[in-house]
Design goal:
Blueprint lengths: L4 E2 L5 E3 L2 E2 H8 L3 E5 H14 L4 E5 L6 H9 L3 E4 L2 H9 L7 E3 L6 H10 L3 E4 L2 H13 L6 E8 L3 E2 L4 E2 L10 E2 L4 H11 L3 E7 L10 H21 L5 E3 L17 H19 L5 E4 L3 H4 L3 E14 L5 E7 L8 H5 L6 E2 L8 E7 L8 E9 L7 E5 L20 E5 L2 E6 L4 H7 L3
Parallel strand pairs: 4-22, 5-6, 5-15, 6-7, 7-8, 8-9, 9-12, 9-13, 13-14, 14-15, 17-19
Antiparallel strand pairs: 1-2, 2-3, 4-16, 10-11, 16-17, 16-21, 18-21, 19-20, 22-23
Helix pairs in contact: 2-9, 7-8, 8-9
This protein binds ligand LLP.
Length: 432
């Protein structure tokens, strides 16, 4: 659904906007968000998962406009901090459609969530349940607070494989196998003002294969069946979490939402049938799969340096005006990205290149290996696609870099959703 295309000059156009014009208007680096693409992906999930609640995971990228688009497209919103909650509320998202995550929510955050009337609090520790109880004892909200219990199914999914042992050793969730998940559910059930609605399981990110979901669903639904006996009622909801993979390079092959929905529903229905329980109302929380492909980062080339490698080969180090402060994923996860020249056509022979930033360390790499035009020069624009998820949201001010703006493009027009930081912004926090 991307609207990106090369125009007659060989320049890249997104949302009908020539990125040379965009660079002149807002400068570089900039995150360029294709609004039609974002909405189309949100809608595709909404339609494919028609019987589900689809929570957009705001941690992937959130700003007021995006929270509003999410609501307009009929999705709910997953937030995982007071900061994300405040964006959602400012955008006018119906609080009943907000799910509040986090393994260490503060009393202040919980109070705000409860007072705002957030629809689901996904509890992640006994201490959090205590905090909620204390809070409700102080001033009971008008409606009971909907709660999901986050469980650890003992499955850690990775890109193409999943490991079904030895990953309980992490901070999230209540362990099913240790009995904590059942104890947490009973504890929530006993608190006045809390409405235990179901279980929640999130198994990982950038997953291409539903086999991890299958193992998790089997374990979570076994607990669901057990709780039906213990509590005397079947919990009405089950959240399967997010984590659906996207194509960062041409090698990745993500499933379409339709197929995902079919497979996940099939898995849950099959397990419920086997256990003799009713299929609960399902929900998912995709972040990356909605926002990731919608955005590219636009940079200007500053220097090009040919570096000789062992064996006589040469690598062209292309330095751009951003770096690990606007995309930490390559340095942090060894993530793969690609880059394309955005400002002109080049018929020059491609050479082995590496796109690097302007920060003061050698690991400041944006694109590890890419064939770039042999005639690349300072002033050329480069676009790195697929930077919508976890790039701006994990950006930093390393080296006092100013965070780039997020600019929406649509039908030939440009709207700055989040402006570029200024040195005054940074100095404002520095009290001298
Ligand atoms: N739900 C829960 C409870 C989560 O923890 C996450 C992501 C999601 C949903 C959304 O996952 P998605 O569909 O976006 O994969 N910074 C890493 C990813 C960390 C994901 C954390 N949790 C990255 O850049 O790849």
């Amino acid at each position: 659904s991307s609207t990106a295309r090369k125009n007659d000059d060989g320049a890249l156009e997104v949302g009908g906007v020539d990125l040379r014009d965009l660079a002149r208007e807002v400068g570089t680096p900039a995150y360029v968000l294709d609004e039609a693409d974002f909405r189309a992906r949100a809608r595709a999930f909404r339609q494919a998962f028609a019987d589900y609640d689809v929570y957009y995971a705001g941690k992937a990228f959130l700003c007021t406009a995006v929270a509003r688009w999410v609501a307009e497209e009929g999705l709910s919103l997953d937030v995982c901090s007071g900061g994300e909650l405040s964006v959602a509320l400012r955008a006018g998202v119906d609080p009943a459609r907000i799910g509040f995550h986090g393994n260490n929510k503060t009393t202040g955050e919980l109070r705000r969530a409860v007072e705002a009337g957030v629809g689901r609090v996904i509890v992640d520790s006994f201490h959090e349940i205590d905090r909620l109880e204390a809070l409700l004892a102080g001033s009971a909200p008008r409606h009971p607070v909907g709660v999901l219990v986050r469980v650890t199914a003992g499955v850690e999914a990775h890109t193409h494989e999943y490991i079904a042992t030895a990953h309980e050793d992490q901070k999230f969730g209540f362990s099913i196998s240790a009995g904590d998940a059942e104890a947490a559910a009973r504890r929530v059930e006993a608190v006045d003002g809390l409405d235990l609605l179901g279980l929640h399981s999130h198994i990982g990110s950038q997953i291409f294969d539903t086999s991890g979901f299958e193992v998790a669903a089997r374990r979570v639904l076994a607990l669901q069946a057990r709780l039906a006996e213990v509590l005397g009622r079947e919990l009405p909801e089950l959240d399967l979490g997010g984590g659906f993979g996207i194509a960062y390079t041409t090698q990745d092959d993500p499933a379409e939402p339709d197929r995902l929905a079919q497979e996940l529903t099939g898995i849950v229905e099959h397990e419920c049938r086997a256990l003799g329980i009713v299929v609960p109302r399902l929900s998912i929380e995709p972040g990356r799969a909605i926002v990731g492909p919608s955005t590219c980062t636009l940079y200007e080339v500053g220097t090009v340096k040919a570096v000789g490698l062992d064996g006589g080969a040469v690598r062209s180090y292309v330095s751009v005006d951003g770096g690990m402060s606007d995309n930490i994923r390559t340095a942090l996860y060894d993530a793969d990205y690609s880059a394309t020249i955005a400002s002109r056509r080049s018929d020059a022979e491609p050479v082995l290149g590496r796109v690097v930033g302007k920060h003061c360390e050698a690991g400041d790499i944006l694109v590890k290996d890419e064939f770039v035009p042999g005639d690349l020069l300072p002033g050329d624009l480069l676009a790195v696609p697929g930077t919508g998820a976890y790039c701006r949201s994990m950006s930093s001010n390393y080296n006092h870099a100013l965070r780039p703006p997020v600019v929406a493009v649509r039908d030939g027009s440009t709207t700055v959703l989040v402006r570029r930081e200024t040195e005054d912004d940074l100095l404002a926090c520095d009290l001298g």
